[in-house]
Amino acid sequence: MFPRVLLVFFLLSEISAHGIDEDLVITWEQKEKLDEFRTIMEPHLPHDYMKTDIYLIRWLKARNYEIPAASRMLQENLWWREENEMDALLDEDWTEFNNQYRFNLDGCDGNGAPVFVLFAGEWDMRRAALAGQSEKMRRYIDKCFEEASTVLRNMQARGSNATRANLILDLGSLSFQVQACPRWAKVGFQKTRIYIMEVPKLTGFFTGIPFYLYLVQSLGAHFPNVINACIVINTPEFAVPLWNNMIKPVAPPEVRKLVDVYGRKRSEWREALLTKYGIDFTKMSHEMGGDGRDPVDSNDLRKSDYLYECPELK
């Protein structure tokens, strides 16, 4: 009899065994739970990719291999996808939003996992809210995650070992006055807190915060274990307490574990990218400080039918 703790199964039917990571190695007990989970959920899954081990195991991991909880989570996601017509999401015209709210694919890490860069500091959330585009903004956030998931599936289908993507949130252009509150609000800053000096009314204050809350909540509820790490860089001082006090407490636990926040000292986050996440910034685009090829934006990703190959593998 094989030891239950030591026996592992390589999911060779879907991804080659070279460069195996934690998503491709499971114990015998976990394999039994995966088989049971598949038996329960497979009749309800509308797409073949949802029936693969790589897809199913994401939901089990998100609920610590508790089958009833994982089943509820996945079923609720299926209802959500149907209600929000997620299968047609990437076919919608996102050209304007893609240009205004940049989301790029900028190379791969040392294990061949794609690196996406979301320039959240440039995203004028307040503008979207005041223009009555809040719902579309939330849908656009889901579109970005759907694109990352689609790129991963296509990479796997072509022999890649990548099971998760890396996400960098660049807050370099973040402005509290522009993104968080209207012009009439006078805001003061201290090292660990934000205080309002004069606010005639609160309507519109922190209009950007709900979008960031939605980002972390949707990532946890609808795209579990799609992201390997969420690295926030160029974070201004005022944004740290916003994360610690407003966003982090309501983020799903599995999402909180993914997020690391770095300030505007480039040497620190560049060192962390390389040593902690295996992302060599010198191989990224010029905008990220490297000398690699230009990034692929969402418009070009769509034109390529979401096919991508790591630059060093070409």
TrEMBL record:
Signal peptide: 1-17
One GO CC term, this protein: cytoplasm
Cross-referenced Pfam families: CRAL_TRIO
Keywords: Signal
The CRAL-TRIO domain, residue ranges: 93-296
Key word Ribonucleoprotein present: no
Identification of the protein by name: CRAL-TRIO domain-containing protein
